[in-house]
Amino acid sequence: MKPEQSERFYIEELFNKTQDKNILSAEKLEEVDKLTGDASTRRYYRIFTDKDSYVVCLDNPFNEEIEKHPFVGVQQFLEKNHVLVPGILDHNLSRGYLLEEDLGNQTFLNQLSMIENREEEFTAYKTIIDQLLQLHRIPMSAVDNPNLFLLKFDHTKFMDETRFTFKYFFNFFNKCQDEVLIKELEDLFDPIMKRLAAQKMVITHRDFHSRNIMVKNGKYIFIDFQDARWGIPQYDLVSLLEDCYYDISEENRERLKRYYYDNLDASIHAQKSYEEFDALYQDMTIQRVFKAVGSFCYIYNWRKDDRYLKYIGFAMEKLRRIMLGNPRYSELKKKLFQNYYAN
User: How confident is the model over 179-194, as pLDDT tens digits?
Assistant: First the structure.
């Protein structure tokens, strides 16, 4: 997609300033294409030179120290700790400009569409989980930038995200204004959030799904990690294996959960058994998927972007599957789905 002429001129100006620093100074800018945006407000452009291609990200201006920048700071930390992330070639943060490595167009979700059998599916996910384990093994003592990971998934954050879905899924999307029902649901979600918030935490990616993993030269590279924070290990694992965009086979889901558990030292997750780990995984699935439903509705309500609406039904049925037959969730399932199926 061709950018507006003013956008092209702006990109050219910024790229020229990059070259003034003797970065890519031997390359000639030939073309600028605007890329389809994600669910954020950032704008992305692919630029082509006579030798290679790169990605320009334009975001809000940032006038503080580079160590405080949410994307650059986390990128530098993850790269230092051997987590595969896109390289940053240059930046002008006061103008919201980042020049990044071009990872191409193939997301992990794209790759999954070409997978032929369950064993191939398992192998691909296992490779990604090995990298996720690398992230989750990073100790707190390795965080030498005091501006990083200042936030965590505590009870307040979990409940705020639950109320977010009440607002955008129930109130805006389903036109439900039953305050008594919302209060009853809030009370039923609360103990789940308390259990999750009480656990030992690791550095989490925060949005670890198949659209945020790029495939380049056979490697899986993590993107969109700027909101990384402390959370329980199951947070990222659920984001990957309970992805609202792709339904992994149940056999592989169970194999991969067990593989992750067996390869993360108990001193990191602090659960006494796989059964305890799995029970928290179920809790985390309910929180994570319910929040995703709210995000899909938010994007539609405020940005009029309907691309994510098709995932709501799948997400809700995933929640029903998790709750079905589990007495911890029986009352929540009844109240939640009586309303959902009635609308």
Answer: 999 999 999 999 999 9
